[in-house]
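note to self: the first set is below, dont mix up w the second
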Amino acid sequence: MKRLYTEELAIGYANRLVVQNLNLTIMEEKITALVGSNGSGKSTILKAIARMIKPEQGKVFLDGKSIHEQPTKQVAKQLAILPQNPVAPDGLTVAELVGYGRFPYHKGFGSLTKEDKQQVEWAIHVTGMEQFSDRPVDQLSGGQRQRAWIAMALAQETKILFLDEPTTYLDMAHQLEVLQLLQQLNREEKRTIVMVVHDLNHATRYAEHMVAIKQGAIISEGTPQTVMNKEVLREVFGIEADIIADPRTGVPLCIPHGLTASH
């Protein structure tokens, strides 16, 4: 049975539909990259599937039931989302932030249990943040901050993790740091990861499944080899590009060299 999928999803803002008739199945235990130009609707789709916004029509199904009809805490035990540019309260330490990931397992505002603390310690360890656990989040570098937020999402103990442009505003080293961590979580923990990605070459290197989106519609989906071709790049991004094989992995890489005539 498909675990997470949409049926005829329509999503809108201020009486304007951004996405219509979306049918998308999330590949279980894979990394999926949603790609498209600015304003294509990819972040909107991510938020709707992760239950952050309610669709105008259609449904998102999680384990056979409509996700918007399930209790919030029940959904929060199944999936976690890291939005774009999250901000922690001033002075909040990494350990405190990661502890917030345990909220689906609490009634009211009780203190962390022994099991909670073990899960928090594990999340901090697996993201390589032990030496920063007592440091305020607002004193960390961009890459460290992003790892702290990922640790909080991991502390939720979900098998599905959504990330909206997790490498935005990070330098190249920190981008690789975050992407390699996500790849490690997918391979070692079998986490299903769905992320909105701007850099096409990051998408082909780290995702096994790609979904190319234009004006809220899926233009192409499949392996990087399927999606990364000149025709899709012309239609979705309005660019002319050469496609070469990565000498290390063989995945397709995009080298743009011009705009299409219609762009």
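second set (the one i keep forgetting abt)
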Amino acid sequence: MSHRMLFLGVYGMEMVECGGALALNAEAGGRSFASIMLAKSQMQTELQAAAQVLGVEKVYFNEFERGDIDLRREYKLALVRVIRETKPDIIITQDPEHSYEDLDPDRRPAMLLLLEAIALAGRDYGLEEMPELEPHPVATVYYMSPQTPNCTISLASVWEKKERAMDCLSAQMTFSGHHFSERLSVQEQQAIHPQFAELTPTQRGREVQRAMDRALYLHSGLGSHSRFALAEPYRRQGLMELERLIP
């Protein structure tokens, strides 16, 4: 069954981290969208390329102020507008539990802003600023990269797409390459890739990301005694509502 699916992210790479769900929805005839708060200009271009790979129909860039995410009306209205325009059946966003301990800046206030916008989108909020858009309540929310997942999806059919989408993010990979070159000892670097020192910063970042992705998705799949080899983990908000028990 196809759905309208919206990803609400902070920096950008999260869109690709949820690329399995977005791509599977698009392949099933659904419409996938994404909204990113803080992507810089180069990252925006690269995310557009990644979106094409994943079948994401449109990416909204909010261009909020880095280091100063808060609950100002301007930010809430921007996210409410995205939700009302895309009319999603499903929203994917960052996990509240995980965001509290994440040391990336803006994660914690962003979580409050995201949840508030999701709630306000279905109320009579901001109607004077967007009279052409009716309130849109969102029934189902999934949290990405949760500490306590309660569901997974198989990546087997879209793994190549997810990898190609991550290849598009050279700015993020370059940043990660410099970061891990400083953080990891030579021995640890070689454990990731035997020729780590000979790689460019972009290649270093990509190899580390590739290793982390495979470890996470294998753990969520085979490592958790799943029938899935590689699995993207999520935590669904609220109870699972099933018409009948599923195997």
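remember for set 2: The mean pLDDT is 96.
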